[in-house]
């Protein structure tokens, strides 16, 4: 149900001058009763309760005002419209069919937010983290300064940190907040110094190991005309498991529930009774359609995942939760610990949606009237006018990036889906794993026999249709960067066959059992995954083969992977046990080298079949 804020229309009236009231009052008092009644009738509706017919009263102040909360999450530096299926939103039609609608792009998001704010004197714009990091080249090449500049222009009021805000470490995050030129790349535009974010980044549950204090502000309070709303921002406690060790060095990440409750109590003691938690952790609705009703058949019945238990544990003092991380769309009602309904929202990712929530604020209690909270997600349509200032910003940064971004790297014959794939094994995942194996298979490069690629590291699709003037089927450096923006260094390590099998089992067990993370594998490695079973038993051990020969548990194998996986990231602890490590080129360099060597205009790469993993359901 779309938010429909009430509009309080209270007429303001001028009080009569004191002298005038005394004079008229004396005249009326001298009149006969019938005359007094006649005068009062003429001014009916203006007389005060005291009986003085000409005394004008100050209108009674409305008890509540509606505060508009606009929110989004997981922008990931997508200033331009995301390409391919990653730039589409699913919408369920009245007849039950699902329509894919192109959406997103900062030019359109800015227009959507500015249009939505019209007519709302109390409007706040907040975000649920991952505004930057894993960004396309237009932002990533410049360490995400363009995205911070765009968010300043769109007047973002506050955001939580997400795990990707730590991709380049706490020092770089502080620079994004406070400004200053990059310590090694310097200033990107002559005569201009990066000024940092105009909005606060909140990191309530991220503390320094040395000081024990939050590395950034834990909360902020938005104020206007007596209205006060507190915002607490946290990222997921498991951030160290999904960020490189260097990115979280010297930091501690604390429990989301305990942290939010701690600061909710602190805000409450300060008299801030209306509180919103910005949480970079999310859930999975039963449908991928943005307009799916996740409160059907009952409140919160249509959503699962970590955010459900988090929402149930967060203090009833918090009135709403803006979430993220899972890149899903929902506006659900999950009961708080007191059993009262409470809104939990997420707006997909890449600026494709925004959430419009109405918070009815009680001016007497200073709290949100929970039963009046309404919310809905809205598509950031590409059929609306572009925001001129965003177009100018994008053109300016594109001009700086063009010499690198437009360089051809290879050729493809059709779309090769990665992020937009609908199967656990993706064609682009296979292509990337093959590129890594190819780059590290030579004896002096690592002697790799197998390559593993983490699925979360594949950030987009390779799209056949030209994005600029390069021509259809041409893969540019910018497009390759968008697919693999982390520039992780490649590692080759020695693992036993038993450890290789354990790695496959860790995809669907332990930390990954509830939400499997299926590694993308290089050619030659095959196995069967039986999803009708549970935990590690889902991997059929004797089906794991390399070039048709069963993996020998006691034999040694050389395995290529990026440094994130080699550090045990994404719950793959066994991959962190590799020995005899050799460090190679970056994942992006290897990918580009593979494209150049294995494709040409006459012989473009076709999408891999993605048939290395047999999945039983």
Automatic annotation (TrEMBL):
InterPro entries: 5'-Nucleotdase_C, 5'-Nucleotdase_C_sf, 5_nucleotidase/apyrase, Calcineurin-like_PHP, Metallo-depent_PP-like
Signal peptide: 1-35
Keywords: Hydrolase, Nucleotide-binding, Signal
Top-rank taxon, per record: Bacteria
GO cellular component, one term: outer membrane-bounded periplasmic space
Transmembrane as UniProt keyword: no
Ranges of residues in domain Calcineurin-like phosphoesterase: 72-328
Region (Disordered), start-end ranges: 36-62, 80-101
Gene Ontology BP annotations: nucleotide catabolic process
Residue ranges annotated for the 5'-Nucleotidase C-terminal domain, each copy included: 414-575
Pfam family for this entry, one: 5_nucleotid_C
Protein family: Belongs to the 5'-nucleotidase family.
Protein's name in the database: Bifunctional metallophosphatase/5'-nucleotidase
Organism: Streptomyces paludis
């Amino acid at each position: 149900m779309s938010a429909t804020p009430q509009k309080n229309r209270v007429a303001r009236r001028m009080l009569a001058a004191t002298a005038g009231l005394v004079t008229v009052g004396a005249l009326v008092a001298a009149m006969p009763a019938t005359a007094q009644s006649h005068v009062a009738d003429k001014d009916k509706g203006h007389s005060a309760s005291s009986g003085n017919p000409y005394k004008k009263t100050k209108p009674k102040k409305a008890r509540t005002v509606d505060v508009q909360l606009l929110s989004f999450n997981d922008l990931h530096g997508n200033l331009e419209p995301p390409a391919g299926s990653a730039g589409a939103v699913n919408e369920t039609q009245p007849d039950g069919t699902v329509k894919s609608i192109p959406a997103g792009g900062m030019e359109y998001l800015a227009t959507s937010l500015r249009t939505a704010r019209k007519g709302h004197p109390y409007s706040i714009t907040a975000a649920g983290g991952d505004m930057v990091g894993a960004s396309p080249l237009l932002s990533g090449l410049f360490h995400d300064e363009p995205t911070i500049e765009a968010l300043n222009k769109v007047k973002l009021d506050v955001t939580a940190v997400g795990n990707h805000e730590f991709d380049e470490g706490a020092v770089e995050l502080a620079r994004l907040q406070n400004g200053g030129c990059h310590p090694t790349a310097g200033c990107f535009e002559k005569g201009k110094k990066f000024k940092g974010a105009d909005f606060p980044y909140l990191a309530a549950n991220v503390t320094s190991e040395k000081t024990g204090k939050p590395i950034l502000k834990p909360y902020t309070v938005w104020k206007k005309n007596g209205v006060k709303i507190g915002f607490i921002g946290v990222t997921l406690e498991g951030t160290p498991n999904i960020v490189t060790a260097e990115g979280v060095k010297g930091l501690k990440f604390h429990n989301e529930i305990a942290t939010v409750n701690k600061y909710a109590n602190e805000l409450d003691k300060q008299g801030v009774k209306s509180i919103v938690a910005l949480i970079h952790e999310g859930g999975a609705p039963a449908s991928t359609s943005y307009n799916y009703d996740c409160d059907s058949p009952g409140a919160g019945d249509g959503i699962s995942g970590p955010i459900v238990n988090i929402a149930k544990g967060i203090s009833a003092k918090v009135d709403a939760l803006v979430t993220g991380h899972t890149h899903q769309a929902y506006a659900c009602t999950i009961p708080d610990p007191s059993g009262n309904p409470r809104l939990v929202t997420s707006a997909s990712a890449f600026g494709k949606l925004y959430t419009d929530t109405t918070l009815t604020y009680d001016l007497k209690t200073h709290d949100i009237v929970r039963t009046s909270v309404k919310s809905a997600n809205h598509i950031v349509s590409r059929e609306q006018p572009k925001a001129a200032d965003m177009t100018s910003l994008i053109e300016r940064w594109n001009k700086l990036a063009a010499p690198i971004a437009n360089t051809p790297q290879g050729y493809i014959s059709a779309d090769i889906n990665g992020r937009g794939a609908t199967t656990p094994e993706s064609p682009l995942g296979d292509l990337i794993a093959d590129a890594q194996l190819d780059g590290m298979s030579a004896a002096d490069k690592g002697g790799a026999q197998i390559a593993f690629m983490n699925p979360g590291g594949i950030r987009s699709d390779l799209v056949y249709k030209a994005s600029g003037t390069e021509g259809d089927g041409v893969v540019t450096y910018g497009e390759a960067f968008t697919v693999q923006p982390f520039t992780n260094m490649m590692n080759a390590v020695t693992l036993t066959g038993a450890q290789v099998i354990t790695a496959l089992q860790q995809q669907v067990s332990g930390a990954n059992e509830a939400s499997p993370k299926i590694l993308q594998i290089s050619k030659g490695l095959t196995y069967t995954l039986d999803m009708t079973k549970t935990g590690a038993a889902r991997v059929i051990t004797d089906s794991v083969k390399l070039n048709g020969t069963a993996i020998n548990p006691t034999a040694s194998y050389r395995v290529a992977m990026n440094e994130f996986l080699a550090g045990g990231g994404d719950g793959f602890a066994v991959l962190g046990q590799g020995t005899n490590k050799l460090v190679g080129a970056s994942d992006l360099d290897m990918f580009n080298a593979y494209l150049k060597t294995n494709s040409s205009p006459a012989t473009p790469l076709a999408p891999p079949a993605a048939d290395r993993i047999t999945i039983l359901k």
